[in-house]
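Inputs:
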Amino acid sequence: MASPSPAKPASRRGGPRVPATRFDRRLAKILTHATDVFYEKGYAGASMRDLSRASGMSLAGMYYYFESKERLLYLIQKHTFTTIMERLRERLQDESDPDQRIRIFILNHLEYFLANQKAMTVLSHEDDVLKNNLGAEIAALKREYYRICLELMDNYKRARGLEFSSRVAVLSLFGMMNWLYTWYNPRVDGDADELARQMGDTFLQGICSVNEGRAASQRK
Amino acid sequence: MASPSPAKPASRRGGPRVPATRFDRRLAKILTHATDVFYEKGYAGASMRDLSRASGMSLAGMYYYFESKERLLYLIQKHTFTTIMERLRERLQDESDPDQRIRIFILNHLEYFLANQKAMTVLSHEDDVLKNNLGAEIAALKREYYRICLELMDNYKRARGLEFSSRVAVLSLFGMMNWLYTWYNPRVDGDADELARQMGDTFLQGICSVNEGRAASQRK
DNA sequence: TATAATTTAGAACGAACGTTCGATAATCCT
DNA sequence: AGGATTATCGAACGTTCGTTCTAAATTATA
C-alpha cells in the first residue's frame, strides 16, 4: 500500500464510456500501436524497443502501463475477444431462426475480422504463446466462443433433422473464416457482407446435404 | 576454394535413394528435430541452443550443416512443400473427373498434413518469416500449389456450368484444411480419409448450389 | 598405420533482449 | 503558488541471442 505501484488495473466500471481516465486512454493508444507491431513481426519477434518506438514512448515508460510484454499481449487478446463476443450476443438477441443465427455468427465474425484485421490476426496467430493464468483466461474465452457456435450448429441440425459432426463443422467454419488473414485483399475480394454471403451459402448448403446415407461422395 | 567451406549444398542428384551421403542423413535428422522445436516454440521463439539440444549436437557443430537459423527454416519448408506437391502430381495423373480431382487434392493434403503435422504447422504458421531470396522461393512454391488447386476448381466449374469465385472457394478450402493444426485430435476426430470425406462433401455440395440467382441465402 | 578429409565442440564475440531503478518532468488538487 | 500525485525518461543490469574461431576428435583413404 506504500509502493508507487504502477501498472495497476485502473479502469473503473460504469464510468462515462468514451472519455475514461487519462491512464486508460493512453494505454489504449499503446495497445493499438503494439497490435500493429505484433502483426508485423509476431509476438516473439517484436522487441519491447520496437513497441516503445511505435508508441512514441520511452522503453522504460511503457512499464508504467503494463508490467510485462506478456501482459501486453494478454490485454490485446482479451479486449479483442471480449468485444467481438459482446457484439455477437447483441445481434443474436433479435433472431430465432437457426439458419439466420448461423449467418449472423458468420457475418459478425467477418465484419469484426475485416474491421480489426491486425488485432484478429494477433489473436489467431499468437494463440498458444500465453502460459499459466493469462493463457488459461484467453483459452476460456476461446472455448466459450466455440461453444456458442456449437450450440447454433446443434440447433440447426435439430431443426432440419440432419446428422453430422457439429465439431468438425464448426471448426471447418472457423478455418474458412480465420484463414482470411493470410489472403484477404480488400481491392480484390468483396467486403464483409459479400464474403459472409458466399461463405455462408457454401457452408450451409454444404452441411445440409452431407452424410445422406454416405452416398454423397459417390461419383456422377 | 581454399576455405574448409562447411554448409555446402552437398546432396547430389540421382544417387541411391535411401542411403544418401553421411552428411545428408545427419542433416535430415537435424531437420526432423528442428521441426519439433519450431513446432513447440515457433521460429522466433526457438533458439539455436534449443535446436542444438534437441539434436544432441553442440551449438557450434550445427553450423557445419547449415549456415544460419533462417536457412534451417528454409530447408524444412522447402522439403515439406516439395514432397506434398510431388505426391499430389502422382495422384492426379490417374484421374480425369473434375469432381474426383478435387477430392484427390483434399485427401492428399489432409493425409500429408496429419502424417506430418508438425512440419505442416511450421509451414503454415511461419509463413511470412523468411525474407528476400529464401522467402521468395517458398512463396513461389506456395503460389504454384495454389494455382494447381485453382485450375482444378475452374475445371470443376466449367464441367458443371457453375458460377462463383474460384479464388474465394479455393482459399476457403485451404482455410478449412489448414486450420486443422489448431484443433485436430486423433482420438476424437477421424483419420484423413474420414475428414477428407466430410470436408469434401461439405465443400463440394456447398459450392455446387452457391450463387444460384442469389436466392440461396433467403429464409425458409 | 600414416595421412588427408570430414565432423565435432569449447570458448568467446558483440549485439540485442526484457526488465529495473532513481531522478526528473508534467499534471492535478486546494 | 505549492505540495502531492501521476507520468516519463536515461542509464544500466544480468541474460540470452545468432554466429564465429580454432583446435581437437573422428572417419575415410592409402
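Chain A touches chain B through 47 residues (CB under 8 Å). Flag for discussion at group meeting.
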